[in-house]
Amino acid sequence: MSNETQYQPSPWEWVSTQVETYERTGGAEGNTLMDTGMPIVIITTIGAKTGAIRKTPLMRVEHHGEYALVASMGGAPKHPVWYFNLLAHPESVRIQDGPEPFDVSIREAVGEEKATWWERSVAAYPPYADYQKKTERQIPVFIATRRS
């Protein structure tokens, strides 16, 4: 990511506060979804429309060093904005799972791979199953792999 690109915090106060807390403490605080106790990671993307740096807390779904990024938006009929950021700038994605962010390569899971990661995602965060029932769209799942 370019040093010239500006960070644009989320307009949702709870999101921008959680990101700030997580980053300020190296993941020691702000590392769960509200009061659920369920762990999150922070993904950093480049805005598809704005070109600004965007940061989003997502549920932590990790398996052997890879992460699922589940574009559920709570079962809304449309994809979350960060979904379009991933499509527009797939080479500019970072994950922070602890003190230091790292660059990742992403791909959209399909077929058996998606089924496997969907199971892992629902195991990590059971409401995903309800979100899929709530919407007619197929909820996309991206796989993020650390770049060396």
TrEMBL record:
It holds the Pfam family F420H2_quin_red. It catalyses: oxidized coenzyme F420-(gamma-L-Glu)(n) + a quinol + H(+) = reduced coenzyme F420-(gamma-L-Glu)(n) + a quinone. GO terms for molecular function: coenzyme F420 binding; oxidoreductase activity. InterPro entries: F420H2_quin_Rdtase (IPR004378), Split_barrel_FMN-bd (IPR012349). GO terms for cellular component: plasma membrane. This is Unannotated protein. Belongs to the F420H(2)-dependent quinone reductase family.
